[in-house]
Design a protein that fits this description.
The protein has 206 residues and is an alpha+beta fold. The chain contains five helices and five strands; from the N terminus they run H-H-H-H-H-E-E-E-E-E.
């Protein structure tokens, strides 16, 4: 049945009043044309709106600070230097400090860095360095790096007084590792003291 044109206009006006203008006459004209052409009807703006949960922006997950192996090794090197000067004491340090900084300590730093680089992060984080050198006036120990869980040393740094015939006294710096049960003597170099017997380690001026 063909609906009269005046009835269509009346229906549009009535629906516009009832929906407070949400539906415009243009919507009906588009639907009439779509119906005439056999095309599917256009979805309303309300139907096209996506569900709210599709617009949720995923937040980044917070992660724990990563272990800084370079910083850990650097802390060992700084503590190693501190222990060396404690070992020397006030009576020996002024005489050998410059030569130690220029010749011995760079090799000591290199030995620490290279040896610890082979350790995975989880193992390196369990390592620590001894707080003080040996209290013995003639003892060799400067410091050890050890595993806190097992309390076993992994590398030991020593300085030994030597007195070759007719050559005076020397301080020989070296280290040992747990790779061979601390048997091999890894030389770092020697510093000449004097022909006279050096004072004991750790001695302070009063």
């Amino acid at each position: 049945m063909v609906v009269p044109q005046w009835m269509k206009k009346s229906l549009v006006i009535l629906l516009s009043i009832m929906t407070l203008g949400l539906v415009s006459p243009d919507d009906f004209h588009w639907q009439d044309e779509a119906a005439a052409n056999g095309k599917p009807q256009k979805k309303s703006s309300f139907e096209e709106a996506k569900p709210v949960d599709e617009f949720i922006i995923p937040t980044s997950l917070s992660t724990e600070e990563e272990f800084d192996r370079d910083k850990q090794i650097e802390s060992f090197v700084l503590k190693a230097e501190e222990n060396c000067y404690l070992k020397f004491g006030d009576r020996i340090k002024p005489r050998i400090e410059n030569e130690f900084k220029d010749i011995i300590f760079p090799k000591m730093e290199e030995a620490i860095s290279e040896y610890l680089q082979s350790y995975p992060d989880e193992d390196l984080s369990n390592l620590a360095i001894t707080e003080k050198p040996s209290n013995s006036a003639t003892g060799e120990k400067i410091f050890n790096i050890y595993d806190k869980q097992s309390s076993k040393d992994i590398i030991r740094f020593h300085v030994r007084r030597e007195n070759p015939p007719q050559q005076g006294y020397w301080f020989n710096f070296h280290y040992h590792t747990n790779d061979d049960e601390f048997l091999t003597h890894h030389d770092l170099g020697s510093i000449f003291w004097d022909k006279n017997t050096p004072p004991g380690w750790n001695q302070q001026l009063h």
